[in-house]
Write a structure and sequence with these properties.
alpha/beta, seven-stranded mixed β-sheet, six-stranded parallel β-sheet, 11 helices
Length: 349
């Protein structure tokens, strides 16, 4: 089969490798689309790749073409989304259902060959079926959609309350929609790009705040009558928005950091004291899994994509590129600001 193989830093090649054969508990998937994740970029353009040669790709959709002898829940022809985490299922965290915290995990598309290829093999539980109403493009977005839902589930979320989403990227848009699906009274997206704020409103946000504008914090607090937001989800991984979360939180709020920071973060005494004085609860969110594996995050994503309540906007996709041009796709990331949205790699072209 053809695959995009990483041989060294800044060296990804479209070449022929052996087609994988499923073991008794695995399925072989003919890959349709794979999204380039932000974590893939330093594995190709930097020094984050675990080994060479390697085949990356973990946000994918496709069709089951072959099943191992022990597989009972899937059959050839099933449309599926890939679940990248392969937990050990034996450690204390796995036994508690905290698969994201497994210390002995493998990961499809980084620690073992992934979906930047025509075919990929995964364990039976790592292929989530979806109905005809769900497109293969949506299937490639299951992983970010589940990451967003997992963040919502990291807090004792209740409907009828106010929600601030800091960061209007793909994850932020999904967090906002999940908050609405589960009954938010108000969802407000914060970003520096007016186009993203308009997208948020199209997808159901009740408001949008451009944080580059003077007086934005006063306007934001006015939306809640000055009390702040009951739930604050930081999705950008930006030091500015992480600090902003502390100020936007209401008394007794729940604050969740979904975004992954890339720089050192420090708080002034006054900034940090927000947590003491407001007595809000702060937590983090990592990946997208719960018991039974892979979790309700994945089942609910399949369901709400099917019903249309979890909306998919074409602007989520920046560009579709054939697998044979995967080197050109990663080249685009070398110029900041060029890639605006998700690049989908089409393994059938």
């Amino acid at each position: 089969m053809k695959a995009g193989v990483v041989h060294a830093r800044e060296d990804i090649r479209y070449e022929e490798i052996e087609t994988p054969v499923p073991k008794e508990d695995q399925v072989l998937i003919k890959v349709k689309y794979t999204g380039i994740c932000g974590s893939d970029v330093p594995r190709v353009n930097g020094d984050a790749c675990h080994f060479f040669p390697n085949v990356l790709g973990h946000e994918f959709s496709g069709t089951v073409v072959e099943t191992g002898e022990a597989v009972t829940t899937l059959k050839p022809g099933d449309r599926v989304a890939g679940v990248p985490l392969v937990p050990c299922m034996k450690c204390e965290d796995c036994q508690k259902g905290n698969y994201s915290l497994c210390k002995h995990y493998s990961f499809i598309g980084s620690r073992e060959f992934g979906s930047f290829a025509e075919y990929v093999v995964v364990p039976e539980k790592n292929a989530v079926p979806f109905e005809e109403e769900v497109s293969f493009e949506q299937g490639a977005f299951f992983e970010p959609a589940t990451v967003a839902l997992h963040g919502l589930q990291r807090v004792p979320y209740e409907g009828g309350k106010t929600v601030a989403i800091l960061g209007g990227g793909t994850i932020g848009m999904f967090v906002m929609q999940w908050a609405n699906i589960f009954g938010a009274a108000q969802t407000v997206v914060f970003d520096i790009n007016d186009e993203r704020l308009e997208l948020g409103k199209r997808l159901g946000a009740t408001g949008g705040i451009n944080t580059l504008e003077d007086g934005f914090m006063d306007r934001a607090k006015a939306l809640t009558g000055g009390r702040g937001f009951d739930y604050v989800f930081e999705t950008a991984g930006n030091t500015i928005t992480m600090k902003m979360a502390f100020e936007l939180a209401a008394n007794k709020a729940n604050v969740c950091f979904v975004g992954t920071p890339t720089r050192e973060l420090s708080f002034s005494v006054d900034e940090w004291e927000n947590m003491n004085r407001k007595e809000f609860t702060l937590t983090g969110s990592w990946m997208s899994y719960s018991a039974p594996f892979p979790g309700k995050e994945w089942d609910l994503t399949a369901h709400y994509f099917k019903t249309g309540e979890l909306k998919f906007d074409e602007s989520f996709i920046f560009q579709k590129m054939p697998l044979r041009k995967i080197d050109e796709a990663f080249e685009m990331y070398k110029t900041p600001g060029v890639v605006k949205g998700k690049i989908l790699i089409d393994s059938e072209k």
